[in-house]
Amino acid sequence: MTGRRVTCPNCGAATNLAGAAIRISVQKDAAERERGASTVAPAAVRIIDNIEKVIVGKRDEIELTLVAFLAGGHVLLEDVPGVAKTMLARALARSIGCEFKRIQCTPDLLPNDITGSSVFNPKTADFEFRPGPLFAQIVLADEINRATPRAQSALLEAMGERKITADGVNYDLTPPFFLIATQNPIDHEGTFPLPEAQLDRFLMRLSLGYPRTEDEIAMLLRLQLSHPIDDLEAVTAAPELLDCQQAVRQVHVDEKVSRYIVGIIQATREHPDLSLGGSPRASLALLRCAQAFAAIHSFDFIMPDDVKQIVYPVLGHRLILRPESRLRKKTVRGVLDEILNAVPVPAMPATAFAR
């Protein structure tokens, strides 16, 4: 069929055949992913919709915060002042009916101000322990980089082990425990930057950003008479959330997805533009967040797309660029884009896996 003009059925490109005829197979559309009977999704939708009564136009960021919460981690909110970082923590605590405490970090903040201390009671002639704000279930550490490293380190045990040691006594924290820390990336005067080892303890780093024009107008209309946070009611309770956290762990992870996650992490360790790649804790963080992301969307198994959706907030604060790469205007997000394009994506079926 020399000289015949043909059109590719897949991409639509037209070409002239100069030789023997060839056969082009038509690619089939990928099947829709099968949804399961997730118990997490209904609770997650109620919580997100409730928080959106207070925070307008930030559904993706609210969803990622809930992903970190259900995965059992903690969140670092890094953004400019006045974009509702504190309000997000308050709205989440009210929506789930949990105790909320705020720690305003300052250079003179002491570890005992966070964890609590023993106070002498003259009536009993004995010392009594008075719990600090870290004993709440939802804790906001506002402007964490303004606290000294000594005060910052008081949060590590609570974040990692869900317990506090004070005066030689261990105290278990009431589950669920979730810490949201905020910091301002613009003003660095009088601050103590978090070291890499402490940044790695946060499951995600998020940024809310400025709202769109229409969203900001809607916010002004809502706040004209009163603040919606004052009338926000709980839409779930702590026991249901604990069940949801356990259900997230039951989301199936195929070996191919595990290899895909490890492949991404190993690529960060070998990338020439990075001086520090992801640790095994980063691998586990990707796995847990992918499980929670899938559960929130009513899926009972993980696909590689779930990993791609959460790779930036999970790995962005764990990787360090080389100085020469910064001079070439390289960014961590750009490096992650290169890695995601280079690591082979495993072929997965769109149906639930047999247990």
Which oligomerization state do the chains in this entry correspond to?
A: single chain
Structural class: alpha/beta
Order of strands in the sheet with most strands: 4-7-10-3-11
Overall outline: globular
CATH fold descriptor of the largest domain: Rossmann fold
Tell me the name of the CATH class of the largest domain: Alpha Beta
What is the architecture of the largest domain at the second tier of CATH? 3-Layer(aba) Sandwich
Number of helices: 13
Percent of residues in β-strands: 15-25%
Q: Cα distance, first to last residue?
A: 52 Å
Structure in words:
- Helix content is 40%, strand content 16%.
- The longest helix is centred in the C-terminal third of the chain and has 17 residues.
- The chain is an alpha/beta fold.
- It has a five-stranded parallel β-sheet. A two-stranded antiparallel ribbon has the order 1-2.
- A hairpin with a 4-residue loop joins β5 and β6.
Structure characteristics:
single chain, globular, Helicase, Ruva Protein, domain 3, 16% strand, alpha/beta, two-stranded antiparallel sheet, 40% helix, 13 strands, 13 helices
In short:
With 355 residues, the protein is an alpha/beta fold. It contains 13 helices and 13 strands. A 5-stranded parallel sheet has the order 4-7-10-3-11. The protein has a two-stranded antiparallel ribbon with strand order 1-2.
